[in-house]
Amino acid sequence: MNYKKLGNILGKIMLLEAVLMLAPLAVSFIYKESVIHNLAFIIPIAILSAFGFALQIPKARRNTLYQKEGFALTALVWIIMTLFGAIPFVINGDIPNYVNACFEIMSGFTTTGASIITDITAMSRSTLFWRSFSHWIGGMGILVFVLIFIPESDDGSSMHLLRAESPGPQVGKIVSKMKVTTRILYLIYLGMTLLEIVILMLDKPIPGYENEKLFFSLLATFGCAGTGGFGFIPGSMEAFNPFSQYVMAVFLIFFGCNFSLYYLLLIGKAKAVFKSEEVRSYFLIVASAVGFVFLGLMGKFGAFPQEYTTEEAFRHSLFQVSSLMTTAGFTTTDYNLWPMLSKTALIVVMFTGAMAGSTSGGIKLSRIVIAVKGAYINIRKLINPRYVPKSKFEGKTLEMQTINDVFSFITLYSFIFVISLFLLSFDSVNGQTITVTSDAGAYEVTHGFFSNFSSVLACLSNVGPAFEAVGPYASYVHYNVFSKIILILTMLLGRLEILPVLILFSKRTWKKL
User: Which of 117, 193, 122, 206 lies closest to 465, judged by CA?
Assistant: First the structure.
């Protein structure tokens, strides 16, 4: 293990987080918050800066980072960002419990959107900004941003970091230089972010929040761009006008696309985009899921007592499918009360996620497509042992190694899901009655198996809100400390796609070479 090189990069990450905290500090000054709210960011900025500069002093003899080091470093970065990122919530008193604060900010950085806050109106503006801004930071990836400034090496070190942090079964450069690749990705990310902010600003302000138009546009866009989903007013996006809800739904779908495709569009290779197998699968599933949810809301398959107009049913269907499939977790209504067909469609898209190379979580559609083709190949081989596979994905021959990697990932995903679900069953909250207050009024739900099942799914797929006692109008605050730590780890495993976190806990990783 190249400890000095590891320390140098971790130091850069700490300095980066210190710089990023200047944004919520500025918000605290703009809204003239108390001294303690200012200190809540000044203190961690000072600590991060001190550690960051200190870690730059030792000079590494070897600049090379092997794959295991790149993966371990990636997991360490996200843990350190979380441990320090939670400090402001504790100091300003918005989330005084440190474990709860770590849960909240890990949920932010991993773009999960699961929250332990029960009264969002009690949060300071600087806290609301830091929560949502963490979505934008974690969306494209923390190390992807740092790679812009780290000198590029010829040993593949940068590629190991990008592969460890970027979602999907196949990660590569879109141009020959890694630094140029990361710059292009971030420019596209920034451009789409600014575009959504501008469009949201065209809408009328939310009644009762007339002076918060720009602030809310920023927070909503941060959540869409990172496909996070932290609400910042009661009811998440329920109070937003239909225009803004449609805009957010469309941008969520766009942010769920592979960012490499936008580069192809920019250089005039639109045909390659439309030929993409994953693109066609993505929009087909989005359209199908919206259709099934819409049919359920219109009462076509079983009675549904809540009345929606045709436009409302379509808007809620489009928004919730785009939100949960891209693992954002924003809501416009309490889908906990929807008919079984609609809820089942939402659960399915929570598993699949959106496209690889996007800011979304979940298994990813590319893996689903490859797994289906791999299963077909295995069945054909059982029927005819001489069968020679000729399957292709995105115009390239599908190697058996890629198929095996996908099967391994899905196996690990399932194993972690089951273990996490089992561990949550020890929580004393199970069997308790939780009161939920939503747009449809107050009602009671029992915290049972489906609550735990959906909470693990929501955290592992980085969706956020789940169903029943952890639904869109509830929170995760009722879980005990042990369960919250399990869910924190589950969020990290989901965002980094398992392997970097597992490598971090291997003894062989830390042996000095």
Answer: 117
